[in-house]
Design a protein that fits this description.
By secondary structure, the protein is α/β, with parallel strands linked by helices. The chain has one domain: P-loop containing nucleotide triphosphate hydrolases (Rossmann fold, 3-Layer(aba) Sandwich). Helix content is 54%, strand content 17%. The chain has a 5-stranded parallel beta sheet with strand order 2-3-1-4-5, with helices on both faces. Helix 3 runs antiparallel to helix 5 and helix 3 runs parallel beside helix 6. The chain is globular. Bound molecules: thymidine-5'-phosphate. The site of thymidine-5'-phosphate (TMP) has 12 residues, from helix 5.
């Protein structure tokens, strides 16, 4: 199942999804829209941020399950994705189940993440930001703080997972491939041209 009015940004760390989310947020200030992120700002998401920082160490299967639990509440819970999308708002989410499939497959194999995410509905459009970890790692290092997954080898595996997953999902939803090494302006124009005709943006 696909949720109308729901779009997602995906890519390895340092691909620039958050920068584009902020640009789009600014452009859509006066339009019915809701911007959100995974992990969420709810309790499970806050806990996951501690795991990402390395402050709490968990078995990889537990981490995979927690990301899926956070997503379940994000989708179906109060003030969640479905509630906003059903009101006719454009829901823009920085990361979704594809992150679970790509990242957690790198540390606990593909079958558990597949099992955990198979019943979640899909977004209308996925923007996949492709970048080599050689470049993205430099961007991350420039930020100062690094998280548990921000290592070149891990991100190489994760990028390969993303490429495989995007291919698999092409038949089920719309995937837009972006070259994340292009300029911020050029990427933002491509995103805009893919969404400018959506009803809540045109009116
Ligand atoms: P970000 O806020 O900078 O995008 O970082 C979130 C991190 O969480 C990033 O390394 C990807 C990771 N992540 C997973 O491993 N699995 C998931 O399901 C989600 C949503 C994020």
């Amino acid at each position: 199942m696909t949720v109308s009015n729901f779009i997602v940004f995906e890519g390895i760390d340092g691909a620039g999804t958050t920068t584009q989310l902020n640009i789009l947020k600014d452009k859509l200030k006066s339009k019915p829209s809701w911007f959100t992120t995974e992990p969420t700002i709810k309790e499970t998401g806050v806990f996951l941020r501690k795991v990402l920082k390395g402050d709490i160490v968990l078995h990889p299967d537990t981490t995979a399950r927690l990301f899926a639990a956070d997503r379940c509440e994000h989708l179906y819970g109060k003030d969640g994705i479905l509630e906003h999308a059903q009101k006719g708002e454009l829901v823009v989410c920085d990361r979704y189940l594809f992150s679970n499939l790509a990242y957690q497959s790198s540390e606990c194999g593909a079958s558990l993440p597949e099992e955990l995410n198979k019943s979640f509905p899909l977004p209308e459009i996925v923007f996949y930001f492709d970048i080599s970890p050689d470049i993205s790692i430099n961007r991350i290092t420039g930020r100062g703080v690094t998280e548990i997954y921000e290592k070149k080898e891990f991100l190489e595996k994760t990028r390969a997972n993303y490429i495989r997953i995007m291919k698999e999902y092409e038949a089920r939803t719309k995937i837009i491939y972006l070259d994340a090494t292009e300029s911020i302006e050029s990427i933002s124009e491509k995103i805009w041209s893919a969404i400018e005709n959506l009803p809540m943006i045109k009116k």
